[in-house]
Every structure is written in structure tokens, then in C-alpha cells.
Specification:
This protein is mostly beta strands.
């Protein structure tokens, strides 16, 4: 008789814990980045009672909570209009805190503190990358993630131009001796600009000479008012107007060197990217008027970024840089786990890794198996009200059934005690 009491009592306890989990899920219906949990039951050990049956004769001794498992399904994305809010679409967690205080979260309601550090709602620093590669001007993501500092108004070091590219067509119908010039802005090591001019002169059918010059007053050894020649060469096109040769060899990029600039900047070395990474030439010789449709270069002048205007899908924090320009001042880091269900909930929307979850694998959004991010947005809770209410009804019925079992067992025990009377 006592086993029926204990079995029914275990049913009360298990369903009560299930109701507690459901109540917690519903309480966090509007919690940013919250992940609901599900309860799975498991039967307890069974008692063998023997007998003549060929199959085992066993009586179960009740039920227990076999697993409380968080569900990491995607929550809905809600636009907030706040530039520092960010939501993860796909797998991954934001990396929060430094050293032994590192935790992880899906809640991206971030802001900058008084020191210009990106922090969570509870004030912990958001980890990422903000070191600038002086050669490329891009964010260096090769090291370990650190706290992101991007205080507005701090003057950034300029980045000298190391390459430029022009999309130019040279008119195949131009007469021999006809010229066409196209300027490109070059930035030196001090962040000052100079205008380099590429002058093309047609010398034969499908063949043009080029001369690259800068103002003589800009470089040491130059003469004010006279262009200073940096490089010359020849471009040859095939019968379809495609670039065939540069300087008598296979089409390739041209490296250009300058003397020291008279303003004190060091000499510049930059590359004219005639052939792109895709193998396509930026210069053509078609039968259309000579024109340059676009010019780009990778130098950046010194300046003070203002507030963050957007966080893009790659996790880049993009700030305005004056005159309609933008600059990337930081990059978020994301962590993935082999078993995210093994993470430990800490409260405040934080998770901690455990031996069960495996070690965090940290990288940037959109790389590896990590998801991308959506700026000015937040991921909402993934709690499904219909599912929770359904589970609540089932847990209530299970609790009622277990309590009824205790009532019946009690009545039987009373009847047994009354046998003596």
C-alpha cells in the first residue's frame, strides 16, 4: 500500500515542477532573448514481484523529472530604432564580460556607458574587436575578443592610400594622339589629400600610353606648377576591346611610388588595381566615349567618428565620420557551442558554459556556423503561449490524477484498518 502512496506523491512532485517551469516561461513572455524550457518526465525504478509469467512482472515506483531542457528556437525579431540594439538571426551568443566573468547571451539590448564602452543592460562589457589594422584600415579580428570602446569625438589615426581602382573606358574610335585624363584622390600618411592624374594618350589602334602625375608642389624635388611624373606605361587591348597587356606583359596591376611629400608625410607606395580579384580588368577599350564611371581608394583621412548609426549583418559597428562618410569602429564577436542545451542559466539573460555544453568557439557573425545579426532590432522571447497553456492543462490533469491516487490509497488503507473492528 505504501508504494501506491509514494508513486502518486512522485507524480504530484513532478507535475508541480512542470507547472513551475511553465510559470517561469509565461513570466518571461516579453523578456528579450529569453529561451523557453520544456520538462520531460522519466519513470523511476520498477520493483519485480516475481510470478509465473515468462515476461518480467514489475511494478513502477513513480515518476521523476528526467530533463528540463531549454529550447533554442529562433525568437521573432522586432525593430526598435535604437542603433546599438542588435538581434542574432541563427546560431550563436553574444560574448559578455572579461576573464573569469565571461558569460553569454542572446539579448542584444546594448548601450554605451560614460567611458564609451559597449555594455549590456546590466553594465557588463560586450566583447568584440576594435583594433584597426594600420595597413588595411580594417578591423583586426585575429586576436582574442576584448571590450569594445568607441567613444565619440576621439580622433582616429589616418590610413594612407595603398591601392586605388578606376572603372574606365578608352574610346576605340579615338584618333591617334587624342588624350583623356582621369583624377584620383590619394591620402598620405598624415591624412592629407593629393590628386594624382592618369593621362591616357592613344598611340595606335587598340593601344594607349598612360602617364601618372601629381602636382610638383606636393612632392620633394618637384617644381610648383609642373606635374611630377610618377609612372608611365602602355595598355594594349584585343579585338574585342578587352585589356590584353600592361607594359608589354600580361595584364596586371601597377605599383606606384612617390617621393616624400613636402608636408612631411612619408613617401607613398600604392597599387593601381587594373585587374580585380575576380580577374576582370577595370579598363576597357570599347567603341564608346572615353569616361571613368567610378573611382575608389582605400585611404582614410583623420577624423573623429560621432555616434553609431547602424550595426550591419557582419556585426560591424558603423559610425558617421562627417561629410556623409562612415567608418567601422568595432566588430561584435559571437560564440557557438557543440551543445547549447548544456549551458547554465544565470539570470539577467545570461548563460554560462559547462562541461556538458562544451567550450565556446568564438568568431565573427556570418562565419563558420554562426548566424548573422540585425541592427536596430531585438530578438523577442520564443515562448509560445498556446503551447504553454496546453502543457499547463496537461500538468494540471497529471497533478489531479496523482492526488486522486493518494486519496484512493488512503481510503483503501482506512478500509484495511477497519477489518479488525
Amino acid at each position: 500500500m505504501s508504494s501506491s502512496f509514494s508513486a502518486a506523491l512522485s507524480g504530484l512532485s513532478a507535475n508541480q515542477q512542470k507547472l513551475s517551469v511553465i510559470g517561469n516561461n509565461l513570466a518571461n513572455l516579453n523578456t528579450v532573448g529569453f529561451k523557453a524550457s520544456n520538462v520531460n518526465f522519466a519513470d523511476l525504478v520498477s520493483q519485480s514481484i516475481g510470478g509465473s509469467s515468462a515476461n518480467p512482472m514489475q511494478i513502477g515506483l513513480g515518476v521523476g523529472v528526467g530533463q528540463i531542457r531549454p529550447t533554442f528556437t529562433q525568437g521573432s525579431i522586432e525593430k526598435t530604432g535604437v542603433a546599438t540594439d542588435v538581434a542574432i538571426e541563427g546560431a550563436g551568443f553574444f560574448v559578455i564580460g572579461e576573464g573569469n566573468n565571461r558569460v553569454y547571451t542572446r539579448a542584444g539590448d546594448f548601450h554605451f556607458d560614460k567611458d564609451g564602452r559597449l555594455v549590456t543592460a546590466s553594465g557588463l562589457p560586450v566583447m568584440g574587436y576594435d583594433d584597426i589594422d594600420p595597413m588595411t584600415g580594417e578591423i583586426d579580428t585575429s586576436g582574442a575578443p576584448e571590450a569594445i570602446y568607441a567613444p565619440p569625438g576621439v580622433l582616429r589615426q589616418p590610413i594612407a592610400t595603398t591601392s586605388f581602382r578606376m572603372l574606365t573606358n578608352l574610346d576605340a574610335g579615338a584618333a591617334v594622339g587624342e588624350t583623356f585624363a582621369s583624377p584620383v584622390e590619394i591620402i598620405d600618411s598624415l591624412g592629407l589629400t593629393h590628386v594624382a592624374t592618369i593621362t591616357f594618350e592613344k598611340t595606335a589602334p587598340n593601344e594607349w600610353d598612360y602617364t601618372i602625375t601629381v602636382p610638383g608642389a606636393d612632392v620633394t624635388g618637384g617644381t610648383p606648377g609642373t606635374p611630377f611624373e610618377l609612372a608611365t606605361g602602355t595598355l594594349s587591348f584585343d579585338a574585342q576591346g578587352r585589356l590584353a597587356q600592361v607594359n608589354g606583359a600580361a595584364a596586371d596591376n601597377v605599383e606606384i611610388n612617390t617621393p616624400a611629400w613636402v608636408n612631411g608625410a612619408e613617401p607613398s607606395t600604392f597599387t593601381w588595381n587594373i585587374v580585380g580579384d575576380d580577374g576582370k580588368a577595370a579598363v576597357t577599350g570599347f567603341g564608346a566615349p572615353s569616361a571613368t564611371s567610378s573611382v575608389s581608394q582605400n585611404g582614410v583621412q583623420s577624423g573623429a567618428p560621432s555616434s553609431i548609426i547602424v550595426i550591419d549583418s557582419g556585426g560591424n559597428l558603423v559610425a558617421s565620420f562627417g561629410m556623409g562618410r562612415t567608418v567601422i569602429v568595432g566588430k561584435l564577436a559571437l560564440a557557438t557551442f557543440n551543445n547549447p542545451e548544456g549551458l547554465v542559466k544565470l539570470g539577467n539573460n545570461y548563460f554560462a558554459e559547462s562541461d556538458v555544453s562544451g567550450q565556446a568557439v568564438i568568431g565573427t557573425p556570418g562565419t563558420g556556423s554562426r548566424g548573422t545579426v540585425i541592427g536596430s532590432s531585438l530578438e523577442k522571447s520564443n515562448v509560445d503561449i498556446a503551447h504553454e497553456f496546453t502543457q499547463m492543462i496537461l500538468a494540471q490533469r497529471g497533478y489531479q490524477a496523482a492526488s486522486k491516487g493518494i486519496t484512493v490509497a488512503d481510503e483503501l488503507l482506512v478500509d484495511t484498518l477497519n477489518l479488525k473492528r
